[in-house]
């Protein structure tokens, strides 16, 4: 949050209309991007944090596996990271869309080159 402070408290993030034109910077889009970025980073940590506990507890009851539990747990963590990070990145793409009605007032009545109202903007939210 501190490194990306300008996105949600300062100048905002550039927003792009349906024709690919940058129409200005929006703090509201910056806040939405920060939230989505936070959620993806939170979600991709769940599998590597939860899987070892859920899997190693039953495995710890098997006497033959006690000597190898460190390696088993490390392997389960790697599988969790291998599953969690790609799934979170796939769910939360680097670019996000936001309705014009949800943005600052200066973006609500903009029109494209055809004279049609711009209803949705795209912005880079990060990963």
Automatic annotation (TrEMBL):
Protein name, entry field: Uncharacterized protein
The protein's matches in InterPro entries, at most eight in alphabetical order, are given as:
Mtc
UniProt keyword annotations, A-Z: Amino-acid transport, Membrane, Mitochondrion, Transmembrane, Transmembrane helix, Transport
Q: Name one GO molecular function term.
A: monoatomic ion transmembrane transporter activity
**Transmembrane segment boundaries:** 42-59, 71-92
Q: Which Pfam families match?
A: SFXNs
The record's family statement is:
Belongs to the sideroflexin family.
- Please provide one cellular component term from the Gene Ontology annotations of this protein: mitochondrial inner membrane
Q: How does it sit in the membrane?
A: Multi-pass membrane protein
Please list the GO biological process terms of this entry. Answer: amino acid transport; mitochondrial transmembrane transport
Organism whose genome encodes this protein:
Neobodo designis
Just give the chief location class: mitochondrion
Q: Which PANTHER family match?
A: SIDEROFLEXIN, SIDEROFLEXIN-5
Task: Give the subcellular location.
Answer: Mitochondrion membrane
